[in-house]
Amino acid sequence: MSAAETIRLIAETTRACRLCGLHMGRTNAVPGEGPPTAKIMLIGEGPGLHEDRQGRPFVGPSGKFLDQLLAMAGLERHEVFIGNVIKCRPPQNRDPQPEEIQVCTENYLFRQIEAINPAVIVTLGRFSMGLFLPGERIMRIHGQPRRVNGRLIVPMLHPAAALHQPQNRPLLEADFQRLPEFLAQVEHERAARPASARPAPEPEDDQPLQQMSLF
Ligand code: URA
Fold first, then answer.
1. pLDDT tens digits, residue range 114-151?
2. Superfamily for 3-214?
3. Any transmembrane segments, and where (predicted)?
């Protein structure tokens, strides 16, 4: 099955999902959107009020700011895949619970990642970061790319963190401005690797990248 077909099927299943209690309070599930061949995937926390109403990710105030941040990286929204850890809005925007995260990521997010196979995953906020870098602290490692299972994970603050606390805005802006550099690094490495070796995990998994300054 093509990546496009897999992504379409996952979205269809997500919209009908009843695997956890969050389906009872939703208006729309929010599967995520973007090209199935996206090189960059951004993963937020979960839908808020606006996303629940429209069934689309990051369409409220955080989304408007995210569009500005993408522009600072020379990117437009339609070039990246935007998803979330959980696909349905929790009541009163409470934190997602561990069981909700587990069932939703196993059934949807991780399958989306596998189908899209992005070169770079940007995690937005601590819940998204926690999927790949459990136990880390976002204020300590934001903007520092790490290899996890052969993929480049770039942890960043959630855009809402800058809307609530303006002192976080320059941190997010600086991290987004480095996104093209991170992508170039991975693409350079992917191109240099023999095709037969491409699916293999990187030997330096889960290590901060040491050679970024070469680019
Ligand atoms: N915040 C998120 O984490 N995701 C969205 O889709 C919107 C706001």
1. 999 999 999 999 999 999 999 999 999 999 999 999 89
2. Uracil-DNA glycosylase-like domain (3.40.470.10)
3. none
